[in-house]
Amino acid sequence: MINRYIIPAVLLIAAPVAITVAAESRSDKSVELIQKALALLESGNENAAQQAAMPAANAGGEQGARAWLIIATARYRLGELESAIEAYDLCRKTSSSKTIRDYAFDRALTVRKEIRTRLKPETGEIPQDAAKRLAKVEQVFHFASAPNIFVRARNPELARVIASRAQILLEKAWYGLGAEIKYPHQIRIFVHADRHEYAAAAPPSPDWSCATARVDNIDGKLIPRIDLTQLDENGQFDSRLLDRILPHELCHLAVSEYFGPDRCPLFLTEGLAMMAEKAGDPSRQILAGQSFMADDATGINDLVSQEMPLRKPELFYSLSYSLVEFLHSRMSSAQFKAFLNHIRTGCPFSHAVQRAMGISYEEGFIALLAETWKKHSMQQSALLQAVQQAVQSAGKPDKPDAGKP
Ligand SMILES: [Zn+2]
Predict the structure, then answer these.
(1) How confident is residue 8, by pLDDT bands cut at 50, 70 and 90?
(2) How far is residue 270's CA from residue 403's CA, in Å, rounded to a whole number?
(3) 4 assigned to some structural domain
(4) How far is the CA of 248 from the centre of ligand 1 (A)?
(5) Nearest Cα residue to 250 out of 175, 153, 144
(6) Could you report the per-residue pLDDT of 75-100, keeping only the tens digit for each?
(7) I want to staple 71 with a disulfide (CB 3.0 to 4.6 A). Which of 87, 210, 330, 363 is the partner?
(8) What distance in angstroms lies between residue 273's CA and the mean position of ligand 1's atoms?
(9) How many A from CA of 136 to the centre of ligand 1?
């Protein structure tokens, strides 16, 4: 099938004759850059194509318009739809050729439509038809990339969606921790078709696991990697993939880079990763509160020093989420970042909280904190259970009739 995203060659070849010598030499240089950018684009090197075309685009004129067209196509292929539209608009404003202006206008319109019909990251809901499209598994691999992300998947749309979402999610997690420099690596994301394919490629993990994040050391170079699974056990597109699993695993990599490998306490890295998920799972808060009520919760000192979730892993995750969410809710964003930074520099948990909150050190602080957290957790749990019950009874078509079987 013809690739509909290839720029019609006629738009790029038909250059008007330059009228002055100065303009001519500038134009020659631009033509050279455009040819180079076009070759890079054809070989699938979108980032380099953009870079090569940018000076020609900035030089303006008819060649500038053509350069914007290449940039727009590269951005489109990288899944950067909004900025692709910007480039199409700039092409349209720069060109004096009606053919090019019409083409850029049409493309911008098509991409705008695509944004509207594509997955909407802000809602997290996947429309029925998109879920069907994303469940398709092709024999060949497809690739997509963003500045810090490289994706390989068996579905071209899924590869693009993951690349663009992952970049946004990574930056959110990275700067949310308090990082002040750019995230320094390119993360490789491998999307396996099903559990079987995942298990064969990913590091040994529990049976229920369908995603992992890890940092490979290849000849002294650190390469972060995420393995994901496209389909659930029913062969449907895994609806948790984009909104829960992807942000969770990306957050682990951001934490690992910010704190240093294996330097962040387990409760904190898991708590942060669960908080990064879109629409946190209420069952975690409910379970945490219930464990306090049943006097089964792990003590705060044990929880923050635990290195492996050996005893009741589900409870460990729930309590970790509950504690990190509690701390986050009681601190300003600057205080929370300061808390993370104190932990990062080796400060014990209790000291880190007190320093971040500007409280002078007190021996009994941790007991007080534990008590306040417990109350908060039980209240949250009760509230969420009440909401769940209300939603469930609202979802029933009619009030149950006591007389019916
Ligand atoms: Zn995790």
Answers:
(1) low
(2) 48
(3) no
(4) 6
(5) 175
(6) 887 777 777 888 888 888 888 877 77
(7) 87
(8) 6
(9) 27
Query: How far is the C-alpha of 16 from the C-alpha of 39, rounded, in Å?
Result: 21
What is the CATH number for 253? Answer: 3.40.30
91 burial via Cβ count (<10 Å: 0-12, 13-18, 19+): buried
Residues with Cβ < 8 Å from 170, sequence gap 6 or more?
148, 149, 183, 187, 250, 253, 254
pLDDT value at residue 152:
96
Q: How would you class 45 by CB atoms within 10 Å of its CB: exposed for 0-12, middle for 13-18, buried for 19 or more? A: middle
191: its two tokens: 């999307």
Same domain? For 73 and 184 the reply is no
CB atoms within 10 A of CB 203: 11
CA of 267 to the centre of ligand 1 (A): 10
Q: How far is CA 17 from CA 2, 21, 31, 66, 191, in A?
A: 31, 11, 12, 14, 49
In this structure, the number of other CB atoms found within 10 A of the CB of residue 20 comes to 9
pLDDT of 38-68, one tens digit each?
Answer: 888 887 788 888 889 999 998 888 888 888 8
Q: Give the DSSP letter string of 15-38.
A: PPPPSSHHHHHHHHHHHHHHHHHH
Could you tell me how far CA 145 lies from the centroid of its own chain? 12
User: If you average pLDDT over residues 163-178, what whole number do you get?
Assistant: 95
Using the mean position of ligand 1's atoms as its centre, give its distance from the Cα of residue 115 in Å. 31
Length of the chain, in residues:
405
- For residue 344, what are its two tokens? 């990062």
Give the integer Cα–Cα distance in Å for 282 and 272.
Answer: 15
- Distance (Å) from CA 285 to ligand 1 centroid: 16
d(CA 140, CA 61): 41
DSSP 345: T
Closest alpha carbon to 275 in 331, 347, 344: 331
What does the pLDDT read at residue 173? Answer: 96
Choosing from 79, 98, 117, the residue where a domain stops is 117
Return mean pLDDT, the chain: 84
The overall longest dimension of the chain from CA atoms, in Å, is 95
For ligand 1, the distance from its centroid to the CA atom of residue 119, given in whole angstroms, is 25
User: Do 127 and 246 lie in a common domain?
Assistant: yes
Name beta bridge partners: 224.
215
Show Cβ contacts of residue 263 under 8 Å, excluding neighbours closer than 6 positions: 344
Q: What is the DSSP letter of 243?
A: I
Separation between Cα atoms, residue 88 and residue 65, nearest integer Å? 9
